[in-house]
Design brief:
Length: 330
């Protein structure tokens, strides 16, 4: 348990995507790498909250650490579009003010979640896309990198596999810089793998953030649920904070994050019932796959997914840190 230094209670949950995550699908090294990565991130975000920091700072810190880790489909390590590019989407929401920021179709921003936060706090808008978003980033001193920064061999191979199956042409392979990618970590968890965080801070405020490269082989400027407030991300102090991962096309149609929050606003259900109603029932009935993490104003954390597994972790001022990959983990 992280030290609380006399503050009121706080809670944090993170996810690193949902998909085909089963014991038989991962080697011991792969499993250990994911557990270590999730452990590092939950520790980092938890330290912000334990020191009395804001929920917004904790979710931004957690998500931006995962954006830098090539294990996850966000920032470096993002999946490729059918044209062989990395196009990044992210969102963040402040439960205290209902302010929100989102970005989509970025190709040069190292930490899309930080740009989403700058959009929320300093643009006067909620959502900026593509070149315009990157122009705004330049006025804000947000870190820019070459598009090749995001390249990983593993994601390129997933793209080749996907395009071959579809019978679509394979674009020329971009030359990426050397990453700290470990070859043994080539694990194809399907097309999922977004990252997200939800937090309650010691001042009683909630926040949520989500960041993704989207889905392998996406075309025509496709944008999923992750940067859409109410679909892949939502936070309201009077309800809960939610971050989603899964088939964006289904999460958008069900307004998954906002629907869970609406259930909590009615105050007739527990957080676990609210997330299960939307994921296990509505999402499954529509044929969508994925999962969510959520935190309530009283610090309760719940997650729900209808895939084999979800990379996830939780920590709080009054409970042990829990890291999970498979359905059999708690
Ligand atoms: N929700 C993301 C999207 O549709 C993908 C994912 O979570 O894996 O872009």
């Amino acid at each position: 348990m992280l030290e609380t230094r006399g503050y009121r209670k706080w809670s944090l949950a993170i996810h690193g995507g949902a998909g085909v995550i089963a014991r038989k699908a991962l080697t011991i090294d792969q499993e250990a790498a994911y557990r270590a990565a999730l452990g590092k991130v939950i520790e980092l975000g938890g330290a912000v909250l334990a020191a009395g920091g804001q929920a917004l700072d904790a979710v931004e810190a957690a998500v931006s650490a995962m954006e830098d880790d090539p294990l996850f489909n966000a920032g470096r390590g993002a999946v490729f579009t059918a044209e062989g590019r990395n196009e990044l989407d992210a969102s963040i929401m402040d439960g205290k003010t209902l302010m929100a920021g989102a970005v989509a179709g970025l190709t040069r921003i190292r930490h899309p979640v930080s740009l989403a936060r700058a959009v929320m706090e300093r643009s006067g808008h909620v959502m900026l896309i593509g070149e315009g978003a990157e122009r705004f980033a330049r006025t804000q001193g947000i870190e820019e990198v070459e598009p090749s920064f995001f390249f990983t061999e593993r994601r390129w191979r997933s793209l080749e596999k996907y395009l071959t199956k579809k019978g679509w042409p394979i674009p020329q392979k971009p030359v990426g810089p050397k990453t700290n990618e470990r070859p043994y970590l080539v694990h194809d968890e399907g097309k999922l793998g977004t990252v997200g965080a939800v937090a309650l801070d010691a001042q009683g405020h909630l926040a949520a953030a989500t960041s993704t490269g989207g889905t392998t082989g996406k075309r025509f400027g496709r944008v999923g649920d992750s940067p859409l407030i109410g679909a892949g991300c939502y936070a309201a102090d009077g309800a809960c904070a939610v971050s989603c991962t899964g088939d964006g096309e289904y999460f958008i149609r069900l307004s998954v994050a906002r629907t869970i929050a609406a259930r909590m606003e009615m105050r007739v259900t527990s957080l676990k019932n609210a997330v299960d109603a939307v994921v296990q029932h509505a999402l499954t009935a529509l044929g969508g796959e994925g999962g969510v993490i959520a935190v309530a104003p009283d610090g309760q954390i719940a997650w729900s997914y209808n895939t084999e597994g979800m990379y996830r972790a939780r920590a709080s001022s009054d409970g042990p840190t829990v890291i999970g990959l498979y359905a059999s983990d708690s």
